Amino acid sequence: MAKRRSKNRTHVPVENDKDTSIPKSICIRLGTLAMKNKSLKQLVNDFRLILSPHTAIKLKELNKNKLKDFIVMCSPLNVTHLFTFTQSTNNDNDIYLKLGKLHNGPTVTFKVNEYSLVKDINKFKNKSISTHGLLFQEPPLLVMNGFKNDIPQEKIIISLFQNIYPPINPMNKKIEDIKRVLLINKQEDGTVEIRQYMIVIKDLINKKDIKAKNIDKLLRLKDDKRRTIPSLKKKKDISSLVLEDLGYMTSDNESEIEDEQIIKEEDEIKQEIEAEEELLAKAEEKVEDEIKEEDEEEQQAIKKQKLNDGEKSSSNKKAIKLHEIGPRLSLSLLKIESDLFKGETLYHSYIKKTSKEIQELQKKHDEKVRLKEQRKKEQEANLQKKKEAKEEKKKRKEERRLQRKEQQSNQEEGSEDKGKSVSEDDVSSSEDEYADVPEDIDSDLLSEIDENPSDEE
């Protein structure tokens, strides 16, 4: 039988991501109003580009989906952060962003003051920048500005945003792989701005090379006789040149050109004389240099190496530019909770409470925790009782099955013994029935038959 062909190019086996050290995230929208808002849908899609590559870019939400459904699915997928966009029912303009750390929190709630999509930012650019797929294959470089570790709520925000992306090892990471920058800036009024930039690297051109090229172009234009430059010696103002444009390139102008040519010839003669003098001086210097060449060869070699190294360093210089690709968000911190989308309120920007109220809330919270633990213990005890009852029921069933098997085996053995006894009894009964019959009954009958025909004869 022929061996079945294996398709290796198109049917590639899927490898499961077993590396749990890489943080992963999910960005979703929840609520009826949020599901109807098309601009919010586009904002969620653009925000997923910020979280890429370790995020679900093509995730689709449904109206019947709830927050609990996503939280349950996060654990098998090794998701560490959950972003949710919601829209309030009281005011349609209020949009909130929640960032939760799985599985035990904390949760930070922001109010979205303003936002701009990727397409909105591209409209105001002079040049359209192509954001290809290779741009989002590596995580961005995170830059946080204006936050302080001394303030507890800001410390929580710093730790949450820093853990969204895997840490960068500067010894192993290549600079070319970093193609994006995520800037999270806290302003003086407390608002947090999120912006995303693309890094563009270009070779730096030396200014000396540019000057040399420009000088060469000017010298070429000066030597080109087809392009005659008008003389401005006798002109008092630029207006005189414009107004006397009709007289341009006439006999007077030609005489001026001839005068300029004569001046050029005199200058050329002087330059030739100076060149000859320079050649003589160089010849004398060469004679002196030949005597000192042996001593200065090493020094010249070192100088050449230094010059070459300087040229290479100048040629390897590169210019870095940042182009904003979006989206752009302006957020204001609302509150911080201790657990995942629930729990004790650690910080609230609008509501301030006294120490007594905080103590009372702490007592209530502790009481809730105690009752929760008590219910858990009761549930565990009930589950243990149910398990024990099931085990006892299984044992009873097994015992009944064994008893039934024993009974069936005993019945089969009894039926076999009865069959043997019945066959023996039947044989003995048949012998008893024919015990009274005489042994020579057949001979008597035959004798009677023989006697009758003799009588007839």
Features:
10 strands, 10 helices, 3 domains, disordered C terminus, 457 residues, alpha+beta, 50% helix, elongated, Rossmann fold
Outline the structure in words.
The structure is a single chain. The chain has 457 residues and is an alpha+beta fold. Helix content is 50%, strand content 16%. It has 3 domains: 25-201 and 324-348, Brix domain (Rossmann fold), CATH 3.40.50; 207-316; 357-410. Strands 1, 2, 3, 4, 5, 6, 7, 8, 9 and 10 form a 10-stranded mixed β-sheet that branches. A hairpin with a 5-residue loop joins strand 6 and strand 7 (192-203). It starts with 24 loop residues before the first strand and ends with a helix. This is Ribosome biogenesis protein SSF2. Residues 357-392 have a biased composition (Basic and acidic residues). Residues 287-322, 357-457 are annotated as: Disordered.
Biggest sheet descriptor: 10 strands, mixed
What's the CATH architecture name of the largest domain? 3-Layer(aba) Sandwich
Instruction: Extract low-pLDDT stretches.
Output: 245-258, 441-447, 449-457
Shape: elongated
If you consult CATH, what is the topology of the largest domain?
Rossmann fold
SSE string, helices as H and strands as E: EHHHEEEHEHEEHHHEEEHH
| Oligomeric state | single chain
* Discrete helix count: 10
Task: Briefly note the structural class of the backbone.
Answer: alpha+beta
Count every beta strand, where a strand is a DSSP E run of 2 or more residues: 10
* Tally of discrete structural domains: 3
Helix content: 40-55%
What is the average of the pLDDT values?
Answer: 76
Strand content: 15-25%
Q: Over the alpha carbons, how many angstroms does the gyration radius reach?
A: 51 Å
How far the N terminus sits from the C terminus, by CA atoms, comes to 95 Å
Q: CATH homologous superfamily of the largest domain - what is it?
A: Brix domain
Top CATH class of the largest domain = Alpha Beta
